[in-house]
User: Fold carbonic anhydrase from Phialemonium thermophilum.
Amino acid sequence: MAFVLRAVFAASVAARALASCAYGTHLFPRAEEGAVEINTFGYAGTVGPLNWASLDGGEANVLCATGTRQSPIDMVDGSFQMVPASDLRLEIADMPEGTEFENLGTTVEVVGRGGSLEVAGKTYEFQQFHFHLPSEHLDNGTSVALEMHMVWESPEKDVAVIGVFVDLDAGQAPPPAKRSVVPHGRPGHSLRRGLRRRQEASGEAAAVEEGFGGVQGFLTMPIVRPAATPSSLLETVFSQVEEIATPGSSVKTAPLVMSELVNTLLQGSFQSYSGSLTTPPCSEGVLWLIPTQKLQIRTATFEKVRSVIGFNARYPQNTPGEPNLLDIAATRAARR
Ligand SMILES: [Zn+2]
Assistant:
């Protein structure tokens, strides 16, 4: 197996960088049975997102630095259209025999076994789902623990991605230490000042002063999280994530009940916009659907996933239709 992996890796380095977001579509057909190709781009240093356009000879990934409808983005009002669940059809076959769960080097990915999405007059076929850590899209300004990308392709080669926010469960982790986290000094004071400014702005200053016993009070204030649905599907998949800790490795999953996921997503709506792949070659014309329904996994599960993925989120891009942030930065740097 090790020899096969090395051979595949060498071949993929000689070719172009592979795109995990589009793996299994016409852009990047899946490797032959039993082989897992490893991506050559990365998330830090010279192979990271700021330099993706320079990889692969400079032309293949040019949209990463020049495209004006790039993903991910901050999902704030005005950047998307809301699509009610009644305006689309979503079906994914259960996988009673399980399926492949692979480490592509830049993400971990589950291979699809059939499913269809009908939206805006087009029909797409389900290809795979994979994960980004932390989330790539921001949920109205906020990063979420994970984002699941469910990738679809139409017969006309159009790509659609359903990007599901995956948050941590509440209450499983031990309570925070009361005095040891930020016990003294300026960081705690600046936290207090920041909090007080926000609460003064919302007219709550008096109530806060009364119950505010210092940093201890701040740390024990409850964190309000949007509702999320615990996902036994993700718990099942991730129960084997440590078995594919090595890039290029793969394992067969237990039976996967995809209908659980579909039913959850269809209970909400979908925030839609036209964007791009979030990995090289950053191709545009990708239909994004970000469900208002979020999933939830156990904190211990998240820690296992983090130990394997590490970090694989592209930074938030400019508002769709506005210049690419790298174009803006290059123009300003040239003026100096
Ligand atoms: Zn992705």
Summary: The two ends are 52 Å apart (CA to CA).
